[in-house]
Amino acid sequence: MKTLALALALVAISAAGAFAETCSATVASKSLAGAAKTSFLTKCQKDATATCETQAAEKKLYGAAKKSFTTKCVEDAVGK
Fold it and tell me: Does the keyword Signal apply (predicted)?
């Protein structure tokens, strides 16, 4: 039962990541500027980093593979 719940959670996370709007696109669509933009981008990057690190742990990545995966994942989420 726990395995099924974990598998469903992973699918949901993967699907959400595939269709989610990048942080930069969200800033543009919401027309954020100044302090609001900076605050939003900072929070968005922190959230993306936490999510990507969780995904790396789930994939049992360590060392250079974890760093590479996490860096690419965050860049994709932030939209750099």
Answer: yes
